[in-house]
């Protein structure tokens, strides 16, 4: 045998392999078949090294070599085991006689489920036929020094021997993935029964007080366990005879705890696996052991939907058989009624989001279990269909994923082709997961990282074990991607496609639901009106037109996206309305079909925002802007102004011209709202965009009004006019619900009659307001002039000289504060500059404001809090006037400007956040306080805007309706929180997360405000 020949047989380091072959005494012509079997292993080099180690520790290495030469079955099994990983090789080195476990016809035989239990109980000296078997160290070989340790070690070694035999059958194709998983489950159950027998021997007084049953959950309960996986369990106990219940529960807890330690403890055999009781009632916070009545009471009163989903796989696996059976009979009916429980939809949606939430950053592409297109997608789909339809169809009630999938297919809930595709994908993913775990007998469901030092070699071995021989790494990678894509496709299709079959004529052979079944499934998706949803689906998909055919392709996917939105019913209705509005427009459905991002975004927006839906229905063609983030970003004011100018030139009447400009504003509102909801734009960008389009609209309307009024005055221009933005408008911080706070200034031309000039100015501003508020399809833009001098009692429009006289004689501190946000946005440019020159000394006084003015501002703030907060409003939840809300932050910023802008010119800005940043830069505000205030202001602004987007009407407080608040939280990106432990109790929802985040941020801002604003 040469190094070249070994290389051709698959050995990576042929020179080293040649020396190992010689060391193993396999360099004769009789050993060609042995070398070939080693070369066929997943990792030939590892298999050869493992054989050398085995021969070195074997008491009779010649017997091993001889058996390998003569017995082809042994040769294949042993070489495959040695090449699969180091863990079982280490076992064979520790127990060199155990290679015989892979020898003979018995090694190829699949044992009956009871065989493992009886064998492991015999191992610890217990009698399998006893009602409560007890171990007996007297029949177990050991040194006698520590009988308990001897029992535990003997049991663990026996488990490894049975596992070794199973792996030999698995790697040589004797058993299917399902058979391997079932045997692993039975082996785990048997080990727990034997461990419980040991625990009874260790604590006979406890065993005498109680009956204890172990209920398998998760994969063990479904007889689909991995080689290394947590074994999820629940314990149920009852007193024996007249024993005190509390004493019996304490005894059962001691037995359960001792039993769990045996597979989890570490010795020379390593850790077998962990026993995880976290799926019990109340999770880790609940008692380890309960009586049957206590379990029933909990599930009847407190359990959440996810707990019933977990119970779907519950099965007695060890301990008292009769008690375990009674548990199943009591709990099972509640499992299958859970889909009718209140809150089922919300819990289902939370469980759906958990799949994504559990994926660690950067590992999604390598995750076999949690990643997109992974095992969890298959399991979740099957279980959800079972919960929905198993309520009325007992044939679907299986805890095993593949058996349940087969039943769903056979009885018409899933298409046969889809079920076959998912079954094949499930087997591939589980087979891959098993092979990964066999490397070191450690829990993992993560593909090797190709960029790690040993990644390529591990991927090569994994590919070879799966049967990819030409280019194992490439073939494995392509197969993995292909399977994941197929799972994602089928995950979407199998739950949603049959809904369309219920209302549309689709190809024969597809799963077909009755209307009632379709309604159940839509209800499970979160539709509050399943019948209405079915009508929408029928309208969209009926007929033989190309449009209907494309809708039938789109909707199975889009229904899932609607289901993930806060209001699926509104989303589907909006989609139908938009689709009908666009009619046969050729680009629309083609865009949705060819650009999945547009379809997904559209579903989310329609199911989240009434405001966006209303805007989109007025201009359905705007769907095209969803294709690219760049199309969603706000456009420069100069570009908007050019479009407004074109509209003014295009139309003859001011009504038509301003209507066109308002249509431009509506389009920009939709663009801004979409970017906001999709996370493309920040709070500052949203405020700036809303301010810019409002300013452009007012400027264009002012020009149209000016032209019309001058014409009405015989063509004589008597005065020049400008509009000054105030408040949030002046600060560039408008929200969707904000009125445009303005004041009007006019300045008569030289020689003009003052009274006539004022009359013309009044006519202009009245015409401006009329043009902006004419009832029509476009959203109105309401102008608010309450911040003018003398408030509502003063004239709506004043001359520049009148402003100067008023401010010189009557101006109060609050007016100087209001002028901090004054910014001319429309009208005569010379008048704009003159107005700024007039008000700058008022808002940025030399030397700053004096102590009396500071005190006056503080009194104003206190009075505003006491008088302006709406009756019944919660001051902790009001975004504008509440504690730590917008007003608190803005008054801090404005007080700093009034006191220090004279010495720091860069404080002369109308924006709140810019003011805070400049104040921090100059040391007027600590960096920490600046962060706290900015965070609260951003959050309050975003909440205020999102209330309008979600509800379609304004609101200044967090909604009191928890459903609306949850929708608001989802719109803002909050999801059900969860850690990586799938057995956790129900995750905190979006409403609670939003509330907690808001209260925390505003509480801190309020503390800063009180310290900074009221600090002498």
TrEMBL record:
UniProt KW RNA-binding keyword: no
Keywords: ATP-binding, Magnesium, Multifunctional enzyme, Nucleotide-binding, Nucleotidyltransferase, Transferase
Reactions the enzyme catalyzes: [glutamine synthetase]-L-tyrosine + ATP = [glutamine synthetase]-O(4)-(5'-adenylyl)-L-tyrosine + diphosphate; [glutamine synthetase]-O(4)-(5'-adenylyl)-L-tyrosine + phosphate = [glutamine synthetase]-L-tyrosine + ADP
An MF annotation (GO) of this entry: [glutamate-ammonia-ligase] adenylyltransferase activity
Region feature Disordered, mapped onto this chain: 973-994
Positions of the PII-uridylyltransferase/Glutamine-synthetase adenylyltransferase domain: 351-495, 876-1010
Record's keyword annotation contains Kinase: no
Span list, region Adenylyl removase: 1-499
EC number: 2.7.7.89, 2.7.7.42
The Glutamate-ammonia ligase adenylyltransferase repeated domain, residue ranges: 76-324, 601-836
Residue ranges with Acidic residues bias: 978-989
InterPro entries to which the protein is assigned, alphabetical: GlnE, GlnE_rpt_dom, NT_sf, PII_UdlTrfase/GS_AdlTrfase
Cofactor(s) this protein cannot do without: Mg(2+)
Region (Adenylyl transferase): 507-1016
Record Pfam families: GlnD_UR_UTase, GlnE
Family, per entry: Belongs to the GlnE family.
Role of this protein: Involved in the regulation of glutamine synthetase GlnA, a key enzyme in the process to assimilate ammonia. When cellular nitrogen levels are high, the C-terminal adenylyl transferase (AT) inactivates GlnA by covalent transfer of an adenylyl group from ATP to specific tyrosine residue of GlnA, thus reducing its activity. Conversely, when nitrogen levels are low, the N-terminal adenylyl removase (AR) activates GlnA by removing the adenylyl group by phosphorolysis, increasing its activity.
Name the UniProt record assigns to this protein: Bifunctional glutamine synthetase adenylyltransferase/adenylyl-removing enzyme
Species annotation: Nocardiopsis alba
Lineage, broadest ranks: Bacteria, Bacillati, Actinomycetota, Actinomycetes, Streptosporangiales
Gene: glnE
């Amino acid at each position: 045998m040469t190094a070249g020949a070994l290389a051709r047989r698959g050995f990576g380091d042929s020179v080293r392999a040649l020396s190992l072959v010689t060391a193993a005494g396999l360099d004769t012509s009789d050993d060609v078949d042995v070398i070939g079997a080693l070369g066929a292993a997943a990792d030939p080099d590892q298999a050869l090294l493992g054989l050398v180690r085995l021969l070195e520790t074997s008491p009779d290495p010649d017997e091993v070599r001889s058996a390998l030469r003569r017995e082809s079955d042994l040769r294949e099994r042993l070489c495959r085991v040695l090449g699969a990983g180091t863990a079982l090789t280490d076992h064979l080195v520790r127990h060199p006689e155990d290679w015989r476990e892979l020898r003979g016809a018995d090694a190829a035989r699949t044992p009956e489920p009871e065989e493992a239990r009886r064998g492991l109980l015999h191992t610890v000296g217990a009698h399998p036929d006893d009602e409560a078997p007890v171990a007996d160290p007297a029949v177990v070989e050991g040194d006698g020094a520590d009988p308990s340790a001897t029992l535990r070690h003997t049991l663990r070694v026996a488990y490894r021997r049975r596992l070794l035999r199973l792996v030999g059958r698995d790697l040589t194709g004797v058993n299917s993935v399902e058979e391997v998983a079932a045997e692993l489950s039975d082996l785990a159950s048997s080990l727990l029964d034997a461990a419980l027998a040991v625990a009874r021997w260790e604590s006979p007084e406890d065993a005498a007080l109680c009956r204890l049953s172990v209920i398998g959950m998760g994969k063990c309960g479904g007889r689909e366990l991995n080689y290394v996986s947590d074994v999820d369990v629940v314990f149920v106990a009852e007193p024996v005879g007249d024993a005190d219940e509390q004493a019996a529960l304490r005894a059962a807890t001691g037995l359960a705890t001792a039993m769990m330690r045996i597979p989890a403890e570490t010795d020379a055999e390593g850790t077998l696996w962990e026993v995880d009781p976290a799926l019990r009632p109340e999770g880790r916070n609940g008692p380890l052991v309960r009586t049957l009545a206590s379990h029933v009471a909990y599930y009847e009163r407190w359990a959440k939907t996810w707990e019933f989903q977990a119970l779907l796989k519950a099965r007695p696996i060890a301990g008292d058989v009769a008690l375990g059976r009674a548990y199943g009979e009591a709990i099972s009916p509640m499992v299958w009624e859970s889909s009718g429980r209140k809150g089922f939809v919300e819990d289902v949606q939370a469980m759906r989001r958990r799949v994504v939430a559990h994926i660690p950053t950067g590992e999604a592409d390598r995750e076999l279990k949690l990643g997109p297109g992974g095992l969890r997608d298959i399991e979740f789909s099957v279980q959800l269909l079972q919960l929905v339809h198993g309520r009325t169809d007992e044939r679907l009630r299986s805890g095993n994923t593949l058996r349940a999938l087969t039943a769903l297919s056979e009885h018409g809930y899933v298409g046969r082709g889809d079920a076959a595709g998912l079954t094949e994908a499930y087997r591939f993913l589980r087979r891959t997961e098993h092979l990964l775990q066999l490397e070191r007998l450690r829990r993992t469901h993560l593909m090797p990282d190709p960029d790690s030092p040993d990644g390529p070699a591990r991927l090569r071995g994994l590919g070879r074990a799966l049967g990819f021989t030409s280019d194992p790494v490439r073939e494995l990678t392509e197969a993995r991607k292909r399977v994941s894509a197929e799972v994602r496709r089928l995950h979407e299709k199998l739950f949603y496609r049959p809904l369309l079959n219920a209302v549309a004529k689709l190809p024969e052979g597809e799963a077909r639901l009755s209307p009632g079944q379709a309604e159940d499934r839509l209800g499970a998706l979160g539709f509050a009106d399943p019948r209405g949803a079915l009508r929408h689906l029928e309208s969209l998909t009926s007929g033989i037109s190309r449009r209907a055919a494309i809708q039938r392709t789109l909707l199975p996917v889009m229904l899932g996206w609607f289901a993930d939105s806060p209001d699926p019913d509104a989303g589907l209705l909006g989609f139908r309305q938009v689709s009908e509005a666009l009619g046969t427009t050729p680009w629309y459905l083609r865009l949705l079909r060819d650009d999945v991002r547009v379809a997904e975004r559209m579903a989310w927006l329609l199911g989240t925002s009434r405001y966006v839906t209303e805007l989109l229905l007025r201009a359905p063609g705007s769907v095209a802007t969803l294709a690219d983030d760049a199309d969603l970003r706000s456009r420069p004011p100069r570009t908007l102004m050019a479009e407004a100018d074109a509209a003014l030139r295009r139309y003859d009447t001011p009504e038509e011209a301003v209507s066109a400009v308002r249509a431009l504003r509506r389009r920009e509102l939709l663009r801004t709202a979409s970017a906001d909801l999709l996370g493309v734009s920040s709070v500052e960008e949203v405020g700036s965009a809303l301010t810019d389009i409002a300013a452009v609209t007012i400027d264009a309307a002012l020009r149209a009004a000016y032209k019309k009024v001058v014409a009405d005055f015989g063509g004589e221009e008597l005065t020049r006019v400008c509009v000054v933005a105030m408040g949030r408008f002046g600060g560039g911080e408008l929200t969707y619900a904000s009125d445009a706070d303005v004041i009007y200034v006019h300045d008569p031309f030289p020689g003009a009659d003052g009274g006539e000039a004022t009359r013309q100015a009044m006519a202009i501003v009245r015409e401006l307001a009329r043009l902006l508020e004419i009832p029509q399809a476009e959203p109105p833009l309401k102008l608010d002039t309450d911040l003018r001098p003398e408030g509502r009692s003063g004239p709506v429009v004043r001359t520049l000289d009148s402003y100067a006289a008023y401010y010189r004689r009557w101006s109060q501190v609050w007016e100087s504060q209001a002028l901090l946000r004054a910014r001319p946005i429309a009208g005569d440019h010379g008048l704009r500059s003159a107005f700024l020159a007039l008000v700058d000394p008022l808002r940025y006084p030399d030397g700053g404001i004096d102590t009396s003015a500071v005190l006056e501002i503080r009194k104003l703030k206190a009075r505003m809090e006491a008088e302006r907060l709406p009756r019944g409003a919660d001051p902790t939840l009001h975004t504008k006037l509440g504690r730590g809300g917008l007003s608190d932050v803005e008054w801090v910023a404005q007080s700093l400007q009034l006191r220090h802008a004279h010495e720091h010119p860069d404080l002369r800005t109308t924006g709140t956040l810019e003011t805070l940043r400049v104040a921090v830069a100059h040391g007027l505000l600590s960096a920490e306080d600046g962060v706290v205030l900015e965070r609260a202001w951003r959050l309050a602004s975003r909440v205020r805007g999102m209330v309008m987007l979600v509800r379609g009407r304004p609101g200044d407080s967090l909604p009191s309706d928890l459903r609306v608040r949850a929708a608001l939280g989802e719109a803002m990106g909050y999801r059900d929180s969860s850690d990586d432990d799938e057995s956790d109790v129900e995750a905190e929802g979006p409403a609670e997360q939003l509330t907690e985040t808001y209260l925390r941020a505003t509480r801190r801002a309020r503390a800063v405000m009180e310290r900074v604003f009221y600090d002498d």
